[in-house]
Structure formats: structure tokens, C-alpha cells
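User: Predict the complex.
Assistant: Input components as received:
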Amino acid sequence: MLSGLFPNVQWDKMWEATYDTLYMTIISTGATFILGLAIGILLFLTSPHQIWANKVANFITGSLVNIFRSIPFIVLIILLIPFTKFLLGTIRGVNAALPALIIGAAPFYARMVLIALREIDKGVIEAARSMGAKTSTIIWKVLIPESMPALLSGITVTAVTLVGYTAMAGIIGAGGLGNLAFIDGFQRSRDDVTLMATIVILIVVFVIQFIGDFITSKTDKR
Amino acid sequence: MIELKDISKIYQSKNGEITAVKNVNLSINKGEIFGIIGYSGAGKSTMIRLLNGLEKPTNGTVIVNGKQISSISGNELRNARQKISMIFQHFNLLWSRTVADNIAFPLEIAGITKNERSKRVKELIDLVGLSGRENAYPSQLSGGQKQRVGIARALANNPEVLLCDEATSALDPETTDSILELLLDINKRLGLTIVLITHEMHVIRKICNRVAVMEAGQVVEQGDVLQVFQNPQADITKNFVMQVSGTKESKESIEQILANYPTGKIVKLTFIGNKTEQPIISRLIKDFGVEVNIVHGNISQTTSGPYGTLIVQIDGDDVKVNQALHLLDQQEVQTEVIDHA
């Protein structure tokens, strides 16, 4: 029945593209989580009245985040071509998409991390300090666990955005469902391929959102 | 134990300098419960945070437990803080951790092994009366239970000093009393020095040995609790004493009586210790034939004995009334004639 509705869809190609999309999304989400968290924590700790309060460091980090957040993703990919080539020796394939995906998403996530950390009760940080906690202890045992639900719902939103980014990266040759929809669907006027690729992307997004919401609610003991 | 010398704390703000604490000298003895009372903005929050180095004084020195808190930093300060614990008005527990894990947190900071930690946590849970609730999350606890967790957490590393930052201000009166009793019990059993700040004279009366009254960053009065209650000097102290003696409410009735009986004298009697149990009023009536009308009466318990106030109207022959007042003076009962409310 499916082959009747989607006569031009080659399922092995569709699976391969899905795999590529998932691969790019998962790796870039993982790296964005770590990098965004680090930048977000740095932004938080250097902001006024915090442990590392430092106007210059805060301004520089904040500006870099804003600059990279403001560049449209498609432009960022092009700007990063020399960097990617230097790093990986190629600008084609799923791995070549990763630097742009991570650099595009990490500043976005860093802002969400900052918002999450600001929501932590100041008193809890003060309590940890009053017990003689080191800054590293405060980061690992107070900041991250106490903001975990917000960090997780933030990374869920970011992962969904990254699915969209992988589709854009696909257009310039990274592979994945976006690439399939553009090359096989749009350029060859096979609307059923484009439609099927869209459906698969939608399913991926729904699954990510469901898993994200589930884990978020599990960690929230408030 | 704790020594504050010429402490000032000045904050820089956009609108200029704000003096939070001004020329404060205090010394607190080992094993006592010392209260600092003041209205909000009096500088008491800053004061208590000077004691564990969360705030650094602009001028002066803070010595706690032999360490000069005002000048040490880094590891030395962090190690000192493990012996100067703090509990908070809003408890400041980690919502992401269970009761047991919250209490274990300072032990983790101190680098205690896992086995030792769980042993100590069990002891502490028993001490504060939370057995059976060790796996609950803070959100599942009542305010009083949360403060018990806070106290257990504060006691984890066997501190020398416990700082209480408005520890009962968010609790209802009954829970407040049970927490105060727990603090008193800990103070007696462990010989812990307790410094607390509050705006409730009730708290001071109930557990403190000595008290300092703060207003606009300065200590305006300090001394033994009973002495301050009996003979408050500063206006603000008188106000705080009224909070517990209930004389504030009687103001209206005094006005009423002053208006209705222009002849007699309204006298406020303050008793302390055993004097509260003497039959003074009946002696006044029998010996001098004056009329005594009770306007207001109150007795409160402090850690060093009972404290009572009685407001009476004494009416009759002028000479007799004066004789009666003279007798009261001789009884070591403090008398104060009120001629306006």
C-alpha cells in the first residue's frame, strides 16, 4: 500500500537518510549540551554578584554568544567551510556538518542554561558556600542538579532545532533527510519523496520531544 | 569565642554609599545563645554573614573560634566554615536531594567516606526527630520538618558555632516553639555556641542568654536578656519588649482608664525572678486602703527566670497612694507611673 502512495520512495535510501539525520542530531546535541553548559555556567558565574563576578569576562563571553546566535545558520555553514575543511579535510558528509551544527546551537543553548541557572534559589548557593563548598563542588553538586529539569527541557528544544539545522546542512551536501528531500524530492520533482522525508522528520521531532518531556518530569522533585 | 572589633560594612551603590553596619563591638562567649534583634534593614543579616565570611567587613576584625575570619580566604576560610554552620529562614535545602542526601552534603564537602557519611546521617536524623523520612524530598516536608533537616545538615560536621538567620520567621508559632526547643536542646547537649538574628522578641525571650539590639547598623543596647527585659533603655528596645509583654495592646485601655478616672495613678509594675510570686497587690489594699484596679497583666518565661508586667490603677487618698508607691519601690519591684498612654 505504501509503495502505491509513495511510488518514488526508495526505502533503503530513506532509512540511510534517517540514520544520517539521527546521527547528526544525536552527536551534535550531545556536544551542544556539554559546550553550551560550560559557556552557560561561565556566563552565570561571571555575572554580577556571583562567585566569579567579572565584567570583562562576562561581556566577552556574552558578546561571542550573541554574535554566533545572530548569524543565520545557513550563512554560518558557509562561513565555517574553511574551518571544517581544516578540521576534517572535507566539507561533505555527515561529520562535516557537525562543527557548524555545534557552533550554531551551543550559544543558543548557553542562553537557556543561563536562564535555568538564574532560576536557582540564591539561598541554596549561599548555603553551599556557608558549608565551605569549593566552586567546583557548587557547579557539580548545586548548579547542575538544581537546574536539571530546565537544562533538560532546554536541550530538548535545542535538539528539535538541531533536526531542522541538519536538514539545512543536508542541502549543502551533509546527507540526511533534508538532503534527500531536496535532491531526490525537490530537484527531481518527486513530491512523494519530499512528503515522506517530512513525515519521518516529524516523527523524529515528536519522539525527541516525548523523551525530553518524560526525562524532565522524572528529574523534577520540586 | 566570637569577637567583633570596630566593625563597619559599607556597600557601594548607584546612589552612593550605604552603611549596613557601623562601629559594632560585640563579644560572644562559648556555649551561650546570643540573640541579635532588629527590624528589617537594621543590618542584622549583614552582621551574621560577617561571622562566616560570606560578607567581609569594610573596617574592623572578626574573630571566630580563634580564626580571624575577616582576613582569611580560600581553603583556610572554607575549612573554617565547616565549623561555623548556618541555618536559614527559607531553609535553603537542595530540592534535588532527599533528606538523607541533603544532610550528607556538608559531609561530602568535608571529604568524609561514604560509609562514615551514612552512619553520621543516621545519627543526625535521629537527633532532629526525622526518623522514617530520610528518603523524602524537601517538597514533601512541612516547614518545621524542613528546618529540622536544615539543623541536621548544619550539625553534620560537628560545628563550634551555629548561626541562625531568622530561622523561625517563616514558621507558625507552634512550629517556632518546637524548633526553638530543639535549638536549646542542642545548645545544652553539644555545648554549641548559637548566634541568632530575629525580629521577634519572643525568640529572644525563649532561648537567648544575652541579646544585642540593632538599629540603623548600630548596636544600641546589649546585655542579659532578663536585664534588658526589665530595664530597656533605648526606645526601640522598649518597643520590642512590648511585643512580648503585651503592653502595646493595653495602650487603649490605659487611655480609657486615664480618661475615666482622672484621680488615681496608673502604675506599671515589672517583676523578675521570684518577685512574680509575691502577693503585692493584696498588701497594697490591706495596708493602705487604696483601690487597685488591674488593667493588664502578663508573665513570660526566659531562660534565666520568669518576667512579669502588671499595669494597675491605684486610687484613693493622695497620701495613701504615695505610701503605696513607696512600698512598691521597697519591694524591688520596678514601678513606673504612667501619666499618659
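The mean pLDDT of chain A is 92.
Let me know if you want any component modeled separately.
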